[in-house]
Design brief:
two-stranded antiparallel ribbon; 3 helices; mainly alpha; about 70% helix
Length: about 130
């Protein structure tokens, strides 16, 4: 395979990677924007309400003192930390947080594709007369 064929092959691969990166970035950011605009602020996960000073405050089932006491009794402090981490990880896939996660992933994947495409360029010939 001569140098010109190799350069053409790399340039078509490079062009394909640039197009894939641009498509991933465009579709990802547009999808993230659409999800962000259409998602609800927060869903109400209150299992009960606590009244303090005449005002009612929602209390989720996993934030109650009884739940925390039982979690610490059965799993210790590590059980509470794992449950909190699990709740945080689960919250990433709903609402506005999903839009942020999708935008970050699409930018990251597009960056990787752009970097690979930039690294695919063959070495330039040392003699520019060729």
């Amino acid at each position: 395979m001569n140098r010109q064929d190799m350069r053409n092959r790399f340039s078509s691969l490079q062009l394909s990677l640039y197009l894939i990166a641009a498509a991933v970035l465009l579709v990802g950011l547009l999808s993230a924007g659409l999800i962000y605009r259409t998602s609800a602020e927060q869903e109400n996960r209150a299992a009960s309400y606590q009244i303090i000073g005449g005002n009612a405050y929602p209390v989720a089932a996993d934030d109650s003192k009884a739940y925390l006491r039982d979690m610490e009794l059965y799993g210790g402090t590590a059980g509470i930390l794992i449950a909190d981490f699990n709740r945080w990880l689960g919250s990433l896939w709903h609402g506005k947080r999903l839009a942020y996660v999708l935008a970050i992933f699409s930018v990251g994947i597009a960056y990787i594709c752009f970097s690979v495409a930039r690294g695919q360029m063959p070495d330039q010939p040392e003699n520019p007369d060729r």
